[in-house]
Amino acid sequence: MLLLELLTFFSINLVFEHGLGISSLGLVAENRKQLYGLSGSVLLLCSLGSLSVYGIRQGLKFGAESLAAPLLYLCAVAIWYLLLIGICVLCGGSVLGIQPKYLHRAVCSCAVLGCCYLMPQSLDSVWEALWHGIRCGGGYVLVAWVLSGMGPLLYGKTMPAAVRGWPALLIYLGILSMAFACI
Amino acid sequence: MSESNIRQPRRISDFLLRRNPVLVSGLITAPVAACTDTLERALLLCFCFDVITAITVMLSWWIPRSLPYALRILSYSLLAALVYLPTAMGAVFFFPDCSLGMYLPLLTVSLLLTSKTEELFPRRRPLYTMGVLLCCLLGFDGVVLLMGCLRELLAYGSIYGVVIKQGNLFGAMPVFSEIGMGLILLGCGAALLRWIGGYGRREGASDAAA
User: Fold this and answer.
1) Which of A22, A167, A173 comes nearest B191 by C-beta?
2) Quick check: A48 pLDDT over 70?
3) Chain A contacts of B20, Cβ < 8 Å?
4) Do A24 and B208 touch (CB under 8 A)?
5) A95 pairs with which residues across the strands?
6) Distance between CA A150 and CA A142 in Å, rounded?
7) CA of B197: how far to CAs of A166, B27, B192, in Å?
8) Contact list, A19 vs chain B (CB under 8 Å)
């Protein structure tokens, strides 16, 4: 059951299914120290963003296809982003490894806003919205964890110079995406 | 980041290949991997990206640099979200049978518009900035259109909906329309660009890592 759930997290997630957040994952693959801060920031912003989007959809009665959706979703994420930065600054620059620089990178990543757009229209409760955010963010964290382990190989001297780094990362993620799509 | 600290490349034309925003810098990945399965969608992506990026970059010159960094990058995204409204209407008008789905609004948070705007497009040198912007857009369009042609030909055996040939190679591999294959093709393109020109070896992962 646990294995099935893990496979679901891998196969239905932001990165492998929709190709979101790959630029920011390059940071984690290149430098493992960024894993907790960056993936934690994405997880937090995905969860809070999903809650906000649920509130916006319930309050204003419109869907993701609305033209005003990007502006409203962005405003919602922006408010959380500024609040979290404020908390980090008040707490001396870091809360549980999350620092403003990671929040900057997370909010510039397609993963957070993509999570908001991927939220199904038919959610019944705020808990379902929160679970959607945790699921999206959790998928990102899992992929980031895998990449942090593979980083030394993808960016190492053993990799041919033309493929080393960014091209290797794209090819590796593409192969994993195809593999999990088959599952 | 202050404008005085900005690292300038030698030539504007570097942004076509040497610092291509897709293949070398890795600033826009998801929409390219997902929306270049046919040439029509690739054209729509080019149209939307060019309009949103060009107008947002020009409008961003009026954002005061004295604002904190967090507020500045939010301002760029919010400007892009405002530009998105007429762009989305234009996309429906010019390409009524085609859609980018959620990837169209996601163009408003591309790294080119948020974290890299001030580095790539300094407002104190308008002519230089316009040149860089033009080369960035041309570099992006070239990669996207090439990917669109190749993937549609291999996946469906057609180009812009016109069937060219169905056989052992063309149209025989629908897997080329998948996002995963888009990522693999992007990676192969990036590696090929490096192998041919020796470009980007010093850049490491991407400009996004900077």
Assistant:
1) A167
2) yes
3) none
4) yes
5) A98
6) 13
7) 16, 20, 8
8) 29-30, 33-34, 179, 182-183
Q: How many CB pairs under 8 A join A and B?
A: 174
Angle between helices A22-30 and A166-182 (to 10 degrees): 120
What's the alpha-carbon Rg for chain A, to the nearest Å?
A: 17
Q: Is the model's pLDDT at B205 over the cut of 70?
A: no
B86-126 pLDDT per residue, tens: 999 999 999 998 999 889 999 998 888 888 888 888 877 88
Distance CA A78, CA A72 (A): 10
B184 lies in some domain: yes
Are B80 and A71 within 8 A, CB to CB?
no
Pair of tokens at residue A72: 């409203």
Rounded Cα distance between A140 and A145, Å, is: 9
What local confidence, expressed as pLDDT, does residue A130 receive? Answer: 92
- Asked whether residue B207 is assigned to any structural domain, the reply reads no
Tokens of B14: 């570097």
With bands split at pLDDT 50, 70 and 90, how would you rate the model's confidence at B11?
confident
Within a domain: residue A9?
no
Q: Which residues of B fall within a CB distance of 8 Å from A70?
A: 81, 84, 105, 108
- The chain B residue lying nearest A108, using CA atoms, is B109
DSSP class of residue B63 equals S
With an 8 Å Cβ cutoff, is B127 touching chain A? no
Is there a domain that residue A2 lies in? no
The Cα A22–Cα A19 span in angstroms is 7
Q: What is the pLDDT of residue B112?
A: 87
Name every chain B residue with its beta carbon within 8 A of the beta carbon of A64: 102
The domain containing residue A165 runs over which residues?
Answer: 15-182
Q: How far apart are CA B110 and CA B150, in angstroms?
A: 24
Domain count, chain A: 1
Distances (CA, A) of A82 to A53, A79, A110, A126, B189: 17, 5, 18, 22, 38
User: How many domains does chain B divide into?
Assistant: 1
Provide the ipTM: 0.90
Q: Please give the backbone phi and psi of residue A156, each rounded to the nearest 5 degrees, phi first.
A: -85, 170
